[in-house]
Amino acid sequence: MKNWWNKRTAEDKQKVALLALVALLLLGAKLLTGFGVDSLVLYFYLAAYVIASQDVFKEAYENIKKGSFFDEHTLMIIATLGAISIKQYPEAVFVMLFYQIGDFFEDMAVSDSRQSIKSLLDIRPDTAKLKNGPAVAPQEVKVGDIIEVAPGEKIPLDGVVVSGKAYLNTAALTGESKPLAVTSGDQVLSGMICQNAPLDIKVEKSFHESTVVKILQMVEDAGDKKAPTEKFITKFAQIYTPLVVAAAVLLAVLPPLLFQFDFQTWLYRALVFLVISCPCALVLSIPLSFFSGIGAASKAGVLVKGGDYLEALNQVKTFVFDKTGTLTKGEFEVVKVMPQGGMTAAELVKLAAICEQKSPHPIAKSICQYYPGNIETAEIEELVGKGVSAVYQGQKLYCGSQRLIEEVMGADVLLPKPQTETLVHLATKERYLGSLEVADVLKPTTKQTMHALKEAGANLIMLTGDNRQVGLAVADELGMDEVKAELLPQDKVKEVQKLKAKLGQKEKLAFVGDGLNDTPVLAQSDVGIAMGALGSDAAVEAADIVLMSDDPLSIVKAFKISQKTKQIVWENISFALGVKVICLILGALGLADMWQAVFADVGVTCLAVLNSLRILRK
Ligand code: ADP
Ligand code: MG
């Protein structure tokens, strides 16, 4: 309890004090009643009302300025002023007081769940220690500086290890609990925690471009994007509120006019009816549900960039996957060198390494690693999705896919056919020089993921830039429904557009990629899912959902969370509306008084809020 109180902001504490003051005034008024000081009692009540209702008036004023006259706040004001007009002072104050208490607890729940998301992502470093220098703010460290990270500290900026050997805790970034071993030459990301030994790190990105800052930014933004269900509620309130007000007016006016019933009684009933009608539970619990869903996902290492994507994920019927780096590890290894036309194996590897030295593609990395010597410089051009070309000793070399070589040498050139592994071909315009076989393996959880998605009724499609035989072999092993191979990045966009056109209104398409060459498709699909830890920055930016651990199984986790969120949202909607309708009828019939009305509203709101938070607990 003490802990809880200490966590509250000054604003929260001020609110508690004000609410206590209102309670004291009410108590004073109650005690003074019957002692012949009626006007003093009245002042007490009015003071209590003014204090308790000021926020509601402020909110209502803000909304009216924005042009929306009918919301829960205007409802409350009409109801309580009406109560005052019929001298039901304590009722008026209590309506406001209870509303404030309910509101206070909801704020609390929202800020606590925000807090728990933030603490999951408690990765923002305070300082960075320069090598043989002082500790400074991470913003002041420049690219190229060497920083020291002691055991137990967070890595403040993205970079590469230059000396030391340590285990890193990456849980905050990836949800993965297994420590990651790093040593000289390994990439490290800000937000990882160095566990057991000091590391020297050469900084490669400035602080505001570092992973940690980007993630925090995304989490902050995530709360702002509204899911369709949330928008529905806003619209709903705009129609609902005037309807309820009209019904209340009729309830107050018609029975006395038509049947000469007591006006006072029916006015009171109409006011009770208004109080009951406040849709607070809906208005407050639904955004909170989505927020909790986003929080639960981030616990599982999945960053969802907004409630709308969480909801859309639920409706995904077609999952489209990129192959390399998404379904497979994307860590190639040269397994065979097949020179032709008088080349030696050593020459072939040397030329391939010269071509590949600047390419970010995993194939390129494997070839450069395979070459034992120093790579000579050359003039290089990346032919995205196909390979690279290089001008070396006056010769133009082409290195890449079958498609690339066919484009260069003509479609009738005879190339060796790959079986299950990818071939990288090397050629000049006139002469075929040979190929390298590079092998990649499936990620350990890929099969299980495909199985689970299939089980959930999803259609699985693979789009790959790789050769047809290789693509088919992998798709076969995974039981994919469809596979398209030898695609360029722009072909992938066209395929996704075609697939989208085939889907119905409610069905959505998700594209899952590692971001190398597939940023445009990520942006095109209904739900773009990117591999975050190793994916490119552009892909992480274009994606709607980022898998921090690059583990395809996280898709299944996120899918389940989105289902749970949807279920809880609809539970809340039906529960809140159900109770509301019952209470409205009771109120109209005079079977519920103002007290019960207030309790019903606060009670439903609290239950709905607690229900929302269940998502986070799971
Ligand atoms: P995927 O769609 O499976 O992720 P990519 O679009 O990244 O594949 O690449 C498609 C194909 O283009 C690869 O299978 C490879 O044959 C070729 N390729 C692309 N970049 C390179 C490169 N730098 N070196 C050699 N081959 C490459
Ligand atoms: Mg790829």
Automatic annotation (TrEMBL):
Broad EC category: translocase
Membrane topology, as annotated: Multi-pass membrane protein
InterPro entries, per database record: ATPase_P-typ_cyto_dom_N, ATPase_P-typ_P_site, ATPase_P-typ_TM_dom_sf, ATPase_P-typ_transduc_dom_A_sf, ATPase_P-type_domA, Cation_Transport_ATPase_IB, HAD-like_sf, HAD_sf
Catalyzed reactions per annotation: Cd(2+)(in) + ATP + H2O = Cd(2+)(out) + ADP + phosphate + H(+)
PROSITE patterns referenced in this protein's UniProt entry, alphabetically: ATPASE_E1_E2
Transmembrane segments annotated in the record for this chain: 239-258, 270-291, 569-591, 597-616
Keywords, comma-separated and alphabetical: ATP-binding, Cadmium, Cell membrane, Membrane, Metal-binding, Nucleotide-binding, Transmembrane, Transmembrane helix
Superkingdom as given in the UniProt entry: Bacteria
Coiled coil: none
Database matches in Pfam families: E1-E2_ATPase (PF00122), Hydrolase (PF00702)
Residue ranges occupied by any P-type ATPase A domain in the UniProt entry: 135-220
Listed EC numbers: 7.2.2.21
Cellular location(s): Cell membrane; Membrane
Family: Belongs to the cation transport ATPase (P-type) (TC 3.A.3) family. Type IB subfamily.
Protein's recorded name: Cd(2+)-exporting ATPase
Source organism (scientific name): Ligilactobacillus ruminis
Highest classification ranks of the organism: Bacteria, Bacillati, Bacillota, Bacilli, Lactobacillales
